[in-house]
Amino acid sequence: MVKIVNVAERAANLLRRKYFKAGETIITKVLLVDDDIELSIMLGEYLGQEGFQVQTAHDGESGLRAALSGHYSIMVLDMMLPRLHGIEVLRRVRAQNHLPILMLTARGDDIDCIMGLELGADDFIAKPCSPRKLLARINAVLRRVKPVPVGALSASLQVGPLQLWPGKRHAEWLGVRLDMTATEFNLLEVLARQAGK
Question: I want to staple 56 with a disulfide (CB 3.0 to 4.6 A). Which of 5, 18, 40, 152 is the partner?
Fold first, then answer.
């Protein structure tokens, strides 16, 4: 087990060096939105031991507020939440930014999975799941998106009428918000950064 953790730490450090200059700090914050308090505590402790900073919310409204704050690298979102259903939280988050979202559901129905993915979730996992499996899914989603250095959430990139906020995963063309998948946003960001070269 120790060897596996050391290999994972080395891989994470290589990834950090690839994307960041010396002195920059990576924010690896997980927003865990689940009304099961015991499960949230267990998953939060496990992810904390794996080097993540975890904040929990136990209803859809507080989860939505936290997700829209721009302070998180990924959100783990339960489908069945009080005050605001997980699908509605997903829909509202996607209307404003491209925060990576991993959906959780106790039902495990294909319909829930398909609906979540079609609405913009980056991945899906059925409960109950092992903390190790959740960690693997979180890492898989994070590998697909570029890590965000501290202070980069408010920085923007402008190329002609296109304006990108990579930290918030938000893009506008002539002031109109562009709705894109995470992959489309990543591609657009790479192209924008290479413009004129």
Answer: 40
> What does the DSSP assignment read for 116-132?
HHHTT-SEEEESS--HH
**Tens digit of each residue's pLDDT (9 = 90 or more) over 119-139:** 889 999 988 888 999 999 999
CB-count burial class (<10 Å; 0-12, 13-18, 19+) for 35: middle
Q: Which residues of the chain have pLDDT under 70?
A: 1-27, 107-108, 146-154
Neighbours of 16 (CB within 10 A): 15
- Sheet (strand 162-165) strand order: 157-159, 162-165, 170-173, 176-177
Q: Is 101 helix (H, G, I), strand (E, B) or coil?
A: strand
Structure-block tokens of residue 158: 């402008």
Q: How far is the first Cα of the chain from the last one, in angstroms, to the nearest whole number? A: 45
Cβ atoms within 10 Å, residue 191: 11
